[in-house]
Design a protein that fits this description.
The protein is an alpha/beta fold. Helix content is about 30%, strand content about 25%.
Length: about 475
């Protein structure tokens, strides 16, 4: 087991889209007729493609100063509600809802005005530790103070664009018994003891500076997508989307990019149990077993991996995993297919008329609104993010490297989550997934007509998140 990284139908579809478009126009007309929504809100409403999926962040001013009235407006909504905060004075509330929810609020007699919501000055339902605060522009959130664990091939900690970002290094690197002889094993045990391994210290575990030396390049590239510093050097890698995040680099894959499942589980258990790592918020897994399993595979995966992932998410940690590069449609790798992970497929960053990556994977043309053919995808894949010709850090020098794959799409989502958690540290894994999935449009793979996957739009997702800060 390798582990790595028809006319009638068209007529019916056309009728569906005409009907959907007519319903949206009817809703927009209803909102406009009340004259309660601001121009900014109405413009946001017009931009929504799916009336049942698109979300709006709203601040609703009421004609009374009663919390009971505010709650009555909220309780009267039949449309879905993601988040809500009632002003301490009772004269307004913040809410995240759909286009239909906006229409319902507009038609309520207690509603005075509706503007775009930021959550400013609203009370919180999350206890006394955090309170709402003024929201910054999305570009101002860079993952400051958010700790991210990257389980991969390690890090080039000497690269100038990653200096000061790596706050801890670990290595979990057993030697695969299939790769050595009995006499070699005896010699290693004699020299290093029963815990001999492939970490730099000769053991299967190491902690501290230079524990996660990258001898493959994959981990450094992935880490740079998350946290690389901005540089004025024209040959430098782009700034990581969460360039102020703090990185825990954990080496689990070897120079060939493969790993043992026991090492991965040991590394995840460390994150679940070590008191010094309980403030790690996100775990990036740009790795996996290339098994052809359904997108929801918990009942098929035996052993401790599902259990430790369940434990981590119960602690509030968010696990982001690459769906895999085997070109599967209707399946993913492990661990991305586990329900508790956020699974990530790859789409292009630009149009390409002559795209060809793998021998059995090519596009006559490639659109950035299309999932790349090498990317595994299923009906339960959670997100699609850029994964084609991504420039990031090199593991052997201060230069850059270009890589493609779901491995590169995954840290893009991780970086977005770090930005969201900087804005609102109270978000749960379920909250994060919902905000991510409602930020962008849905796209699909050319050869798969069933799986429509949300394309990440991080700034749009951030706009939906109410800003919170410690008291």
């Amino acid at each position: 087991m390798r582990k790595k990284i028809l006319c009638f139908t068209i007529g019916m579809l056309s009728s569906f889209y005409v009907a959907a478009s007519s319903e949206k126009d009817e809703i927009l007309n209803g909102i406009q007729n009340t004259s309660k929504a601001s121009n900014a809100v109405f413009q946001s409403a017009q931009s929504i493609n799916d009336i049942n999926e698109g979300l709006l962040s709203l601040e609703v001013q009421l004609s009374s100063n009663s919390k009971d009235d505010a709650q009555s407006v909220i309780s009267s909504l039949k449309a879905p509600i993601l988040n809500q905060h009632i002003n301490s004075d009772g004269n307004s509330f913040y809410i995240v809802t759909t286009l239909k929810g906006l229409l319902e609020i507009s038609r309520n007699n207690l509603t005075k005005t509706i503007k775009s919501g930021s959550g400013t000055n609203f009370s919180s339902s999350s206890g006394n530790t955090y309170v709402p605060t003024t929201s910054l522009s999305p570009s101002d959130y860079k993952g400051k103070g958010v700790k991210v664990a990257v389980l991969d091939s390690g890090i080039n900690n000497k690269h100038p664009q990653i200096q000061g970002k790596i706050i801890e290094e670990y290595c979990f690197q057993s030697i695969n018994p299939n790769n050595i002889t009995l006499s070699q094993a005896i010699a290693l045990e004699k020299k290093y003891g029963k815990d001999y391994g492939a970490c730099a210290n000769g053991l299967k575990f190491q902690q501290g500076k230079d524990s996660a030396v990258d001898d493959n390049g994959h981990g450094t590239h992935v880490t740079g997508i998350i946290a690389a510093s901005k540089s004025s050097d024209p040959n430098a890698a782009p700034e990581g989307d969460a360039s102020q995040a703090e990185i825990i680099s954990i080496k689990v894959t070897n120079s060939k990019g493969s790993y043992l499942n026991t090492d991965l589980i040991d590394a995840l258990n460390l994150l679940a149990t070590d008191p010094n790592l309980q403030d790690v918020k996100i775990i990036n897994l740009s790795l996996g077993q290339d098994l052809n399993l359904p997108g929801s595979c918990d009942k098929y995966v035996i052993g401790d991996l599902p259990k430790v992932i369940e434990k981590l998410t119960s602690q509030g940690k968010i696990i982001v995993a690459a769906s895999g590069n085997e070109g599967l449609t209707g399946g993913e790798g492990v661990p991305s297919c586990l329900d508790k992970t956020i699974s990530v497929a790859a789409h292009s960053t630009h149009s390409s008329p002559d795209f060809q990556l793998l021998g059995n994977c090519g596009h006559e043309s490639l659109s950035e609104d299309e999932i790349i053919c090498f990317s595994n995808v299923s009906k339960t894949t959670d997100m699609a993010a850029p994964g084609h010709n991504i420039i990031s850090l090199n593991h052997l020098s201060n230069n850059t490297t270009i890589m493609s794959g779901t491995s590169q799409a995954t840290p893009a989502v991780t970086a977005c989550i770090a930005r969201m958690l900087e804005k609102n540290p109270t978000l749960s894994p379920a909250d994060v997934k919902i905000y991510l999935q409602h930020g962008g449009n849905y796209i699909k793979k050319a050869v798969d007509s069933d799986a429509y996957i949300p394309k990440m739009d991080c700034d749009a997702s951030l706009d939906l998140v109410p800003a919170m800060t410690k008291k």
